[in-house]
Amino acid sequence: MNPYAFPLLIKQLLVTPIAQRSRKEIVYRDLARFDYPTLIERINRLGSALSRLGVGGGSTVAVLDWDTNRYLEAYFAVPMLGATLMTANFRLSSEQLAYTLDHAGVDTMLLNVDFLPMIQEMRDQFPQIKRFICLSDDKVLRPGLEWAGEYESLLSAGDPSHVFPEFDENTRATLYYTTGTTGNPKGVSFSHRQIVLHCLTVLASVSQAGENGRFSRNDVYMPLTPMFHAHAWGYPYIATLCGWQQIYPGRYEPTVLVNLVRRESVTFSHCVPTVLSMVLGAPEASDADFKRWKVLIGGSALPRTLCRQALAHNIDIYTGYGMSESCPLLTLAQAKSDLLDEIDDAQAREERDIDIRTTAGMPILMAQVRVVDTAGESVPEDGVSAGEVVVRAPYLTQGYLKDEKASAALWDGGWMHTGDVGRFDEHGYLHLVDRAKDVIKSGGEWISSVELEGLIGQCSGVAEVAVIGIPDEKWGERPLAVVAARPDAALDADTLRQHMSRLVERGVIASYAIPDAFELVEQIDRTSVGKLDKKRLRARYTQKLG
Predict the structure, then answer these.
(1) Does 277 score more than 80 pLDDT?
(2) Gap between the Cα atoms of 201 and 328, Å rounded
């Protein structure tokens, strides 16, 4: 007997949409539209073209592109050759981007011409890159590099029936870099097996949804998380496996995004809160009814005000939680029907619904999520006891590339340490209190910056807020709030203080947690993946107020 072992390789995700004869399309703005058989053919042609250029096992191929159909094709063709797909983060500083390309050992780059000037300036910092492939919507080579060819021309010459090899499912498939708060970015890699398991686990989990977030083969998918970040949360792989209609928006522009959602009847996206706020703030969205659009929020807490705004547009909004090291999803804020059915009052039910949607959610299938004390023991799941969130799942990274010390700390005790402080309530929902490094330690009390941000965000006129701890001689640290107002709002520090004082009077928050200062700004610094950049804010305001 010689049974087929069926290795969990990324290429297996392409079997289902063809076998089930998906009639859906892959769409890139108004520039490309083709069916699944064409997608498979283009992946084959790309694999063939890269092979002829010398890409194979042991190669590392970087992609520097917007969210396009080309990126989707690279998600498959590169790892299916046995090579590593490195998703380069163009929002990093030039020094950090150069570091990641060199550290990853990139030998081939698929480069969008929009980023050509950036790469030209730093070309001598990564001499190991042997070949560049030109990506341009007009299919025209630009001067400035010795190109190995233009993408579409290479595909035209590629073999549409190219056969990809089989190999060990534990072969490295992808590599990307975290935007850590200290030092250089850290390389996080995943095997074919891990990516396939993440795909299947998330898909199985959303099938359990009752009140919100359920998927079907009729969904229309459009990512609003950059494809360089954590495999766009794994959903391009999921969407392809399921044969969904897929819409790729290219560079994020609010008007374009709104028009794509409406024109293509998009039903599922994922993003950080800032991106959704940007979309809903577009003039074209003011009177839009986005019914059937499910939006998964991650990267930072979902403000209740944004949740209400999305629900008012009939968006099925909810939260997910994970990290770059976890591939990334660990929890989803799916409502348990019985928790809502037991509430008769419509307003109370609505508030409870928002409570659930804005939690970090429940662990997805196969994900083990614990909240532990400093001794590594689980704390009570009573909605009050807090500790560090540690996790296990079959798709977590095994460590950081070329960094044994950080890898050992990540997996200390056999559990992956997230660095997040959280608590479980009695219904099994995880509530994130803060990042361990962002908790404000003031006079022996711990103040949650996340909780403060949520409360300040309820003040009329607040667009977004970041709370940080500033050194204080008497108390150790004191909270400071950096607030961006809505364009048409008359907002000042006194209004914010009065709002917080009313919350103290109602017993919502202790008086010692009210920020000592409110700094009004036009916009708040963010990291390359859209998270609040509290490291930069702390440095700025510590120096300013020190």
Answers:
(1) yes
(2) 12
Structure confidence by residue, pLDDT tens digits, 2-47: 888 899 999 999 999 888 899 999 999 999 999 999 999 999 999 9
Catalytic residue among 95, 139, 351, 446: 446
CA atoms of 508 and 504, how far apart (whole Å): 6
DSSP letter string over 211-269?
Answer: SS----TT-EE---S-TTSGGGGGHHHHHHHHT-EEEE-BS--HHHHHHHHHHTT--EE
> Which residue blocks in 81-165 are alpha helix, DSSP H?
94-104, 116-122, 151-157
* Beta strands 316-322; 294-297: pairing state: parallel
> Percent of the chain having pLDDT more than 90?
73
Neighbours of 394 (CB within 10 A): 15
**Per-residue tokens: 405:** 């010390």
What is the per-residue pLDDT for 182?
54
Give the pLDDT of residue 490.
86
Q: Could you confirm whether 441 is annotated as catalytic? A: yes
Q: Which two tokens mark 240?
A: 């392809």
* CA pseudo-torsion sign 458, 463, 467, 473: negative
Tell me the CB-side half-sphere exposure of residue 48, using CA atoms within 13 A. Answer: 18
Q: Which of 160, 53, 31 minimizes the C-alpha distance to 110?
A: 53
DSSP string, 389-418: EEEE-TT----BTTBHHHHHHHTGGGSEEE
Q: Which of 291, 441, 445, 544 is catalytic?
A: 441
* Cα three-residue angle 535-181-302, rounded to 5 degrees: 70
CA distances from 253 to 24, 27, 67, 272 (A): 25, 16, 12, 15
d(CA 421, CA 436): 6
User: What are the tokens at 292?
Assistant: 């059937």
Strand pairing category for 245-248 and 268-271: unpaired
Annotation says 325 is catalytic: yes
Residues 534, 438: contact at Cβ < 8 Å?
A: yes
- Higher pLDDT among residues 476 and 465, named by residue: 465
Domains of the chain: 10-191 (3.40.50.12780), 192-364 (3.40.50.12780), 440-545 (3.30.300.30)
User: Residue 467 pairs with which residues in a beta bridge?
Assistant: 481
Q: Are 199 and 79 in contact (CB under 8 A)?
A: no
Distance CA 427, CA 352 (A): 13
User: Can you give the pTM of this predicted structure?
Assistant: 0.86
For 515-536, the pLDDT digits (tens) are 999 999 989 988 877 778 888 8
Which pLDDT band, with edges at 50, 70 and 90, does 180 fall under?
low
C-alpha torsion sign, points 89, 230, 21, 295: negative
Q: What angle do CA 262, 263, 264 make, to 5 degrees?
A: 95
Active site residue 426: no
